[in-house]
Amino acid sequence: MAAFSRNPATGAPSFVEFKQDGVEGVDGLDGAIGVTISPDGKHLYAASCVDKALAVFSRNAPTGELTFVETHKDGSGLIDGLAGAASVIVSPNGNQVYVAGTIYNTVTMFSRNSATVELTIAQIWRDGVGGVDGLDGASSIAISPDEKHLYTSGRDDDAVAVFSRSVPSADLEIVKTGSLDPVTVGTNLTYVITITNNSTSTATTNVQIKDKLPPGSTLVFAEAIGGSCAGTTDITCTFSTLAAGASSTATIVVKVASGVSRMLTNIASATADTLDSVISNNTYKAFTAGPPVPSMSVWALAALSVILPLTLSGRVLRRIVGRRSVGD
User: Fold this and answer.
1) What residue numbers bound the domain in which 191 lies?
2) Greatest CA span in the chain, whole angstroms?
3) What CA–CA distance (Å, rounded) separates 315 from 328?
């Protein structure tokens, strides 16, 4: 298996390294056909038809270099479906790994622990068993963007088999407040962001609150209870997990400079690795009244206090000069 770096602008690859079966402890790559990378970019999985195996590598994201971790082979433990392993895919939430096997006409599912990335055999679907059809020569596999369906091509069945997926989902809700309101120039404005997992049964992982500071404000500090915050103008607060029914908060304090708009608008959004069943409550827009603008009457009075005396003095002077010229 060869690894290349890639120029994002031109798309041109540059060779980095290769991993070979039987070299430096690597196992499970004999007849490697399918390869995929986990959504978090931390692991690579290779399906090997000759070795009847799924090989696992950890991945250095900046360099692309791979380190062999382990291999799962057909006939080991409860694994019985990797013969002719041809295609592998990781679910978008990172919790499952699926392998299509052309010889046993199977789809094998492993559960993936997103924290330890340990794989555990979970279920095997086989052509002709339990009403399953269309998997003869199963050779390719895909998951829909909403994660609700899995598709497998059956080369020898001239078919595509469709499976529905029961995907645990959370429901993140974000609420935000800002005070002082209204705020004055040179004072601090405090935003408190509360994030809640409304699910009654599913915890969510890698929860992130993203917040862009309003123009005319500078960061004083940002902190998160049970998490961490980073950034200066684009703030990201991260929580490793949020249990079902649990809430947490992030506090962002900014200083308001002169020249800010009459109304400060601040938008916070929430994301997570776990599927979110309701996305309409993942964004919250907070409005805070900015420094008051002097009214026209105040400006007018200020201007008149300077202009009027000058105008009057000019008129008086002209009259005095005019009278003197007549008398002379």
Assistant:
1) 172-289
2) 127
3) 20
